[in-house]
Structure prediction request, 117 residues.
Amino acid sequence: QVQLVESGGGLVQAGGSLRLSCAASGSTFSMLAMRWYRQAPGKERELVAGIGSGGTTNYADSVKGRFTVSRDNAKNLVYLQMNSLKPEDTAIYYCSAWPIWETSNYWGQGTQVAVSS
Prediction:
């Protein structure tokens, strides 16, 4: 079992920045593909960014050039640096882990990001 805890959300004005963090339990963090999802009010959950166990990253078109996902395997942390925030980025952001050795996936509780215009 993998436990995930997100932090760093809050209220920010349009054009501002936030950095989200996700702390993972256990000693297998380097073997986890990590993904950030978000869910805005009235909308379905969407993939925002992902980083593989080997460091490969991918982003939704809506955040390319503004968001950066990174990981620190020594600290069992994954980050989502969010710059040039827009009101459309307002959502609950979730961290998820995708072990390479099993089909199960794990989710944190989410952290709220609100961007005011």
Notes: The mean pLDDT is 96.
